[in-house]
Specification:
With 424 residues, this protein is an alpha+beta fold. The strands form 2 sheets. A 4-stranded antiparallel β-sheet has the order 2-3-1-6. The longest helix has 84 residues.
Length: 424
């Protein structure tokens, strides 16, 4: 059973409060109306504000995926131990508002304040905000501005600059590998390009393929001359043996042969004897010499044979000169090709040396990059901000909130004044 006295006192106190409110209702309503009017005026003169949102995702590196598998987004229990991936996300959130990233954003967009001077980092920071659900790898970046285009530009530039900044962290340009490794890598890269260019120029200027083709052609020609020389020598030997036989045969022959006949057999003599009345000479004889046809034929064959031998010897002499010249040219060209091939081998070896050096430093950089990736993961822009179509709402909400606050404030002042007067 309740206490009737306590209940009665509560009812009396509540009536007193209601009486005070009714008594000073004009003050309360006036205070409320003034607050509503002021809130409406302030809201109406306040510039519209637009908000643009871009989304970036921090994905784990391959090393993290292998050695520290990531739970699905939104998965896991609240009591699970935080992984290095969660720490990396927290690091990203802190780095997003670092002075360096904000300075780069200001420089990229050439942001100015109202006075026309370069916007301060603090002013830009007030326009930016970060939203991230705990345990997720998606980070939402927000930027507010009175200009919707400016809001979109700011948040997109902010995301882009952070992606570049994170890549620099991974590649060691800010907090990565030492200057020595990078310097040696760049030097080895230049040396490799220079050596490869030297090989290219060497091949282009010397044209070893054409020189090889020329050498093969000269060797083929030389072999042809040698074969022809062998044939010519054999022909000379054969013709000389033939000449020797002909000379032996002609030595056995007489150049002239003597022919004997009766004087009366001579036709001219017969005519003369009849006219002159010579007689008694029919018993006399005549002797004459004629060239031996066998000797004449052998002599002709010997002359032709000697001409042929002399012609072949002249050709043999010419072939010997050509062969000697070709042997010198072939040897010189062969030596030149061997020297150039040796030079090319040296240049190629130099390329291999620079290539190994380049690969070694490249591997060192890759190792450093993998280490950084294991720490920072990979940053990607998955959803750039679009141009906001509507300003940030809540005008009526602000007016309503002002009304509620003013109503509470009016009631408080009413009771305060009432109790103050009673106390006096």
């Amino acid at each position: 059973m309740g206490n009737p006295q306590v209940t009665q006192e509560d009812e009396i106190d509540l009536r007193e409060y209601i009486k005070v409110i009714i008594k000073r209702k004009k003050f309360i309503l006036s205070f409320f109306s003034i607050a509503i009017i002021l809130a409406a005026i302030i809201v109406s003169v306040t510039p519209k504000t637009y908000k643009a949102t871009a989304t970036i995702m921090i994905t784990p590196s391959a090393i993290q995926s292998v050695f520290s598998p990531i739970k699905e987004l939104g998965g896991g229990n609240a009591g699970d131990k935080a992984s290095p991936w969660d720490i990396s996300i927290a690091t990203h959130v802190n780095l997003l508002k670092s002075n360096l990233v904000l300075e780069r954003t200001i420089e990229k967009l050439n942001l100015k304040d109202r006075s026309g001077r370069e916007m301060a980092i603090e002013d830009l920071a007030r326009k930016l905000s970060i939203k991230k659900a705990i345990g997720e790898s998606v980070i939402e970046l927000e930027a507010t501005d009175v200009d919707p285009q400016e809001a979109s530009n700011i948040v997109n530039a902010w995301a882009e600059q952070y992606v570049e900044y994170s890549q620099e962290l991974v590649m060691g340009e800010i907090n990565g590998i030492g200057d020595f490794v990078m310097t040696q890598f760049e030097a080895s890269q230049k040396d490799l390009l220079k050596a490869e260019e030297a090989v290219k120029d060497f091949r282009k200027s010397n044209k070893l393929d054409l020189m090889g083709a020329e050498l093969r052609m000269k060797k083929g020609k030389l072999n042809g001359y040698k074969n022809e020389l062998d044939g010519t020598g054999l022909a000379i030997k054969t013709n000389e043996e033939t000449l020797h036989g002909l000379k032996e045969q002609i030595a056995k022959q007489k150049k002239y042969i003597i022919l004997s006949k009766a004087i009366t057999d001579d036709a001219l003599w017969q005519m003369s004897s009849k006219e002159d009345g010579l007689s008694g000479l029919d018993k006399k004889g005549l002797r004459s010499e004629d060239i031996n046809p066998i000797y004449q034929d052998l002599e002709t064959r010997i002359v032709n044979g000697e001409i042929e031998v002399n012609t072949l010897k002249a050709r043999e002499e010419l072939l010997n000169k050509s062969i000697g010249s070709l042997i010198g040219e072939t040897k010189e060209l062969d030596d030149d090709i061997l020297q150039k091939n040796f030079d090319l081998v040296q240049l190629t070896r130099q390329v291999s040396i620079f290539k190994r050096s380049y690969d070694d430093f490249s591997n060192k950089i890759q190792e450093s990059r993998m280490t950084k990736e294991a720490q920072f993961g990979e940053v990607k822009i998955v959803s750039p901000a679009s141009l906001p179509s509507y300003p940030i709402g809540g005008k009526m909400k602000k007016i309503f909130l002002a009304g509620i606050i003013s109503l509470i404030g009016g009631l408080f002042l009413t009771f305060f004044v009432e109790f103050w007067q009673k106390g006096q």
